[in-house]
Design brief:
Helix content: 40-55%
Shape: elongated
Number of strands: 0
Number of helices: 3
Number of domains: 2
Low-confidence stretches: none
Radius of gyration: 16 Å
Distance between the termini: 56 Å
Structural class: mainly alpha
Largest sheet: none
Mean pLDDT: 74
Strand content: under 5%
Length: about 90
């Protein structure tokens, strides 16, 4: 038995991330997924937020060490904290 359309929304929404080129991780990407028949507004929002979250995590995890050294990682964490209205405490040094 194949899963229903609603059961595959997350997988289908996250699928474009497999093609994301991590070499260009400093360029913001907004993958778009088109469903037939269209999803409801709530389903579309949920899938888009899922894709955004996966992409946010995938970028620093897949970055090369010369691109994401400790200072760059802290800067990325601060940027994420600002976008999500979160607080961050960076402990840096020896």
């Amino acid at each position: 038995m194949l899963p229903g359309h609603t059961d595959t929304s997350f997988a289908a929404g996250a699928a474009p991330l497999n093609a994301h080129n991590l070499k260009q991780s400093n360029a913001p990407d907004k993958p778009q997924v088109v469903y037939q028949p269209p999803l409801s507004d709530a389903q579309t929002t949920l899938v888009q937020h899922t894709v955004d979250a996966i992409q946010l995590v995938a970028r620093p995890v897949g970055a090369s060490p010369n691109e994401l050294h400790s200072d760059a990682f802290i800067a990325e964490a601060r940027a994420v904290a600002q976008r999500t209205a979160s607080k961050i405490t960076a402990i840096q040094g020896e």
